[in-house]
Each structure stands twice: as C-alpha cells, then as structure tokens.
Design a protein that fits this description.
α6 crosses α8. The radius of gyration is 18 Å and the shape is globular. Strands 3-2-1-4-5-11-10 form a seven-stranded mixed sheet, sandwiched between helices. A four-stranded antiparallel sheet has the order 6-7-8-9. The chain is built from eight helices and eleven strands. α4 links the parallel β1 and β2.
Length: about 260
C-alpha cells in the first residue's frame, strides 16, 4: 500500500514550475518599463557606484532575461541563472550576448568570479531557513572578495497590510494572452498558495495552462542569521518601496 503524497509538500521541495506558463512570464513579468522604473533606480544608488565598468554580475533567478539585458547594455558582463528551461529559452533570445545557466538556486556551484550577484523577486519562493542558508552559501562562494550581494525578500514585519487583506491577486491581459495569479494566505505557515492560470492564443485557439506556486514571508532575524552563518559580515537593508512588503538587502563579502 502506497501512502498519499501531500501536494503542498511536493511543491515545497521543488522550484516553482514555470514550464506551462513560460510564454506568459515573457509577456508580462519584469519587462523593461518595470526594470527601468522599479529596479534600476535602486541599483544606481546601492550597486553601480561600487562596480567597475565591466564588472561581472550574476542575476540569480533571472527569468526571461530582461534585467540581464538591461545590465548588459550598461556594459556589465552578465550571467543569468534559472531553474526553468522554458524561461531560459526566452532569456537567450532577449539577452543574446549574455551567458545563461540552468540550475536550482539552492544547489548551484560556481567559482568565485562575480563582482556582484543580484536576485530580485526570487527568494520569496524559498520556503524554509535551511534552503535560504543554502542559497546564501552558494552566493557567498560565487562572489569575489569584496563582492556585493543585492536581493529582495518579503519580510513578515512589512507584510501586515497584505496579510490583513488576505490576497495579492494579479491579473494581466493582452490581445493574445491572459495571466491570473490568485493568492491564498496560510497564516500558520506564513505562506501564500498561488493558483496560477494562463490563457494563450495559439493558432486561433485558446490554450489554458495551470500551475501552483508557494511563496513565504520571512522574519528579518532569520534572514540576517542565515547571511551571517555563511560568512557575510556587512549587511544592511531597507524597505523596497511603499507598495510592497519586500525588503532590499545589500551584503558585502569580506575576508
């Protein structure tokens, strides 16, 4: 007799499944306007002034490569890493002069060759402290001495408004695609279950795809402890905008 598998446990042990909706990620997520208005102004203050013109940067959880391309156009030597082959196919088209690596951010191993590593709206999919520490350890190993790690992550201390509302639903539509994300909060786990549905017009026929993701809100002390445990000693953070429950962290590798 085989025991039933808890579907949430299966979700928690694997990266988010982007394969069914890779085209929709490319259509709607982290496009150039969002990057130019919502990401680059921060990086211009906290990252770019401390890098050489041709610094090597790793985008951890790069998705469809739009940030990789924007930073490449600024002269940086860019590498993107993601666990989804589907989104990487788009990334290689969107940023054809950059390098891309297929890997789980919890398990990648790269030599200490990067001057900076960035990870935007990715670590929300890391669901426990052990995996968070594993990601930070991999990042620390891939940074050169004096390298910088910049990332965003949702903190429970900043998420009160969204928890009270109980949802963070997103709907995106154009003439050929629709992308719906419905959020359901699980307070005992500080976790959001995200039911994702996509519609794509393929050869005059609408195709539907469904997947489920989990995202986690973390305690500030847990994030700081995980960073310190792998060796980061210079750690700062700030709230990433008024309409978000994310914090942005800036860490430096010092030996």
């Amino acid at each position: 007799m085989t025991s039933a598998i808890n579907p949430l446990m299966s979700l928690a042990s694997n990266p988010p499944n982007y394969e069914p909706i890779a085209r929709l990620q490319n259509e709607f997520k982290n496009k150039d306007e969002f990057i130019s208005e919502g990401i680059l102004p921060y990086l211009e203050q906290i990252l770019f002034p401390y890098l050489s013109k041709e610094a090597r940067i790793l985008d951890l959880g790069c998705g469809c490569g739009y940030l990789v391309q924007q930073l490449h156009l600024k002269g940086y030597q860019m590498t993107g890493l993601d666990a989804s082959e589907g989104v990487l196919r788009y990334a290689r088209t969107n940023a054809p002069e950059s390098e891309f690596i297929l890997s789980d951010i919890r398990k990648f191993e790269l030599p200490a060759t990067f001057d900076a590593i960035v990870s935007i709206d990715v670590l929300l999919f890391i669901l426990n402290n052990e995996d968070l520490t594993a990601v930070f350890r991999n990042v620390y190993a891939a940074l050169q001495d004096n390298g910088l790690f910049v990332f965003s992550i949702p903190l429970i201390e900043l998420m009160h408004k969204y928890v009270e509302q109980g949802y963070l639903n997103h709907i995106n539509v154009n003439d050929e695609c629709a992308f719906i994300e419905l959020f359901y909060y699980k307070p005992e786990q500080r976790m959001w279950k995200i039911e994702v549905t996509g519609f794509e017009l393929v050869e005059k026929t609408w195709k539907r795809s469904d997947t489920t993701w989990l995202r986690k809100d973390h305690f500030l002390t847990d994030v700081q402890s995980a960073l310190e445990n792998v060796g980061f000693t210079e750690i700062s953070h700030f709230k990433a905008g008024e309409e978000t429950g994310n914090a942005c962290f800036v860490c430096r590798k010092r030996l």
